[in-house]
Amino acid sequence: MQEFITSSDYHFILRQARTVMNGNMNANDEDVLAAVSMMAVERAEQSASDVPDELAEVIRTMGNIREREDYDRFREQLLPFVRPMAEVTDRDVRKLFPKVKNLRMPKFSEAVRKELTYLGWNDPGTNRKYIVFEEGDGLTALFGQFRPSGKKGVCSICNGIDETGLFLTETRHAGGETYTKRGNYICTDSMACNRRLDDRGRFEEFIGTVTK
Ligand SMILES: [Zn+2]
C-alpha cells in the first residue's frame, strides 16, 4: 500500500480522534458532540494532502469513536497509511557523526519509525543527546550536551509538558573561529516527544534556531 501521511500528521489525526472520544465520554449534549466530531474530522482531513478514498473513509469513521476500544481500532486502521521515517543504519550513524567514536544507537523497528518525525536518543556516558532526521532525500544529524533536569517543563520541540532537560548546542561559523552556544529545554524522552509532535513545522523551527 502506498503510504500517504507523515508521522506528525498521524499524531495530529490521533489528537482529533481523542477529542472525539473525550467529547463522547464527558458530554451529553448530542448537538455539541456532533459539532465536535465534525470539526475533528474536518481538521484531520485537512492535515493530509491528496487524501485517497480509502484513507478518507477511515478518517470519516472518526466521528463514531465512543470509547478507548473504538479509538484503538481507529488507530490500527490508520497505521497502514503512515509513512515510517527512513531506517538509519550503523553505517549512516558513523557517517553522520564522523568524530564520535563507538557511538551506539538503539534500534528502531518500522512500527516505531511510523511514530517518528526525528530519531533521538540519550547517551548517558557522554551526557549527550543525538538527533537524526530526514531532510530532502538525505539524513541530517546533530548532537548536544544534555542533562535531564528531573523536573517538568515545556519542551521546545513538541510544546508539551513533560520531564525536560537542557540541550546545549554549539554552532561553528565560517572559518571556525566564532561559535554560538544555545540552550533549549526539550523532552528527556524523545519517543514521548515524537508522540506529541503533531506539526512538523515546529520541529523545523527548533532545528532552525539551534543551527543558526
Ligand atoms: Zn518534546
Automatic annotation (TrEMBL):
Ranges for domain Elongation factor G-binding protein C-terminal treble-clef zinc-finger come to: 100-197
Source organism superkingdom: Bacteria
| Gene3D superfamilies reported in the protein's UniProt record | 1.20.1280.250
Q: Where is the Elongation factor G-binding protein N-terminal domain?
A: 4-85
Q: Where is the signal peptide?
A: none
Q: Which Pfam families match?
A: EF-G-binding_N, FBP_C
Known InterPro entries for this protein? EF-G-binding_C, EF-G-binding_N, EF-G_N_sf
- Entry protein name: Elongation factor G-binding protein
**What is the native source organism of this protein?**
Bhargavaea cecembensis
